[in-house]
Amino acid sequence: MLEIYLDNNATTPILPQAAAAANLAMTSHFGNPSSTHISGLQAKSQLDSARQRAKRVLGAGNGQLVFTSGATEGIQIAVLSALNAARQRAPAAGQARPKLLYGATEHKAVSESILHWSRLLGLDCEIMAIPVDTDGRHDLHFLREHAGSAALICTMAVNNETGVISDLGGIEQVLRACASPALWLVDAVQALGKMALDLYATKIDYATFSGHKLYAPKGIGMLYAREGAPVTPIMVGGGQESAFRSGTENMSGIMALNAVLELLENRDPVFQDTAVLYSFRSRLVAALTEAFPGIVLNAPLELAVPTTINFSVPDMASKELLDLFDSAGIRVSSGSACSSSVAAPSYVLRAMHIVDAYAASAVRMSFGPATTEADIAAGCARIIECGAALRSACLVPTGGAAVMRQHGVLRLESQGACCWLLADADTGSCIIIDPVAALVPRLVHQVQGQNLQVLAILDTRHNAAHDSARALLTEALADKFPATECNSMGWPDKSAIGITLADGKHVQALQLGELVLARAALHSSTGESLAYVAGAAADGRMEASAARYVFTGDAVSIGGLDSSSVSTTTTRGTLQGLANLVGEQCIICPAHDHHTQFITTLGSERRFYSSLLPAQSPAPAADRTEEDVHIHPDLIRDLSHDLPDTLLIDVRELYEHHFIDADGFDAPVLNVPLSRLADHASAWLGNSEQPLIFFCRSGKRGEAAARCLRRLGHAKAWSLAGTTC
Active-site residue numbers? Predict the structure, then answer.
């Protein structure tokens, strides 16, 4: 699939001109600028020429221009220089300690540098974040109040997550009005190539840049220092870069960056005109709006550079959207690439007072000045297809379009709490078990999108700690859930039929296509609980072997206990009660899954508890499956040849599988999302010799599925090693 790269704020591809310049510097013009022979002198001339061009492009005037390894290094030098200067002019007795101010939406390289160097230098400074308004712009009133006693002020030119352009002119007016003695650092990484820069005409003391954000290689950057601004080198040695940054210069990186700056200086058509960039953004926003009705833009477009869009889709997590885009070949991110592994909502959006629901679901789409018309056209078309994939999976409103009904059990999860939707495609009916508030919108999309009638909305737990969303869901699905008298757990007595379970008890049940869902009591550590057993019935009786699923609420925890206060004896008793109702391979669907283990079976839980001595406590569930479950892609062809019944299983969600290229595989591929693992597990466990190879985009979900099957007793479950699809 053709890659559509829309994550330029994280990094950019190298322009051919930059790659050619770097290659020339590494092969033909490889001299050391400090050498005094001809090769060295040629390199020195090229270095000086590159520096002069950079100063012209930045409007550096008489300021210093130092080549660095990137913006982070430049920030370190600037912060250390400012703090070292502050230390040398320590406040007199009785004077307030100096303040170090940084924008609340700054890149972490700035705030962490201030903390690090302050601590290392032993400075007693007051470190304060400058608040921003809902547009993402700095609070000038706050700045006016504190700038007069500040030693350092850090404000970025363009925010890397939202694209919002800082009011640098307004900030400068405040600093001049209060005669602030502070040195002013501006992170200008996202400004280069997107807006005019005339640094020497401003009050800015330091500005930092990174080459890989503008089509040069990684490992090259620039630091501007105003004439007279203090500079304390971090790296000393041979005295290169006017002794501001010792070490042999990265000539290949410098010459590559020089090639980019030359194109920029000469207004080469490789860089789009600003008006064209704005038109590109408008087209992308239109495509996103069509694909995701209800989309929320998290920053005002009129205050942002034209190359960045930060948006959220209601009721969709950012990880889900990233997985969707990635499977479609569109590369985007959830924010700063340096913080992408952090699961918490974006601190940038939180600082802008964006509600957590949107901050946690935000996606950043960014292109660059060299993006082409073809890139945008392909991106818009693929975005529209992404919306169609979400609608087909009922993750967003379908707009009345017909959607194929999904049969069986769907597991929805929110912060460890699980809700189960049991559906019959033939009759178009379903039953919902243990709903939670956070999942109500998703349940509504599933029911309405598939045009299902709801037979019951059930709870398994009496305890007050359970946050049932039955009332919310009942109201939201009024047109799909007929008004029926129900008991306190949601059971519709008048709609029930009678059935005899394997323990001989006659209980109430609901008919759901060919299955029946029977209500049974369980004695557990939380007191009296309900279990719902789903299976086939014959002549008014459900044998243990005919039970396919049992929904146990909190009566059974997957692979052990989450609380040391719950006795092993009690849990064994609960499992024995289940053993009177269901078979060893019946799939247990609990109400919580804090260790991402999805499902379990009666047999798996009984084996675990039988291995424990009465005085012992269960080991943590996450530590019990240590064996390697990975299989190298090179081995799949041989395995498929020797064992033709080997299954290749894509565990990504339906909307991701939508984009799979089936021709790229040597064997048929089955799509079993983790949310529907319960549907297929029984069949796989019944054929434990059939090799199962799970795969996904990063390998993590495939590994989770393989470990789940191994835990349940399937020794030939594997995860495809490495990244695929």
Answer: 338
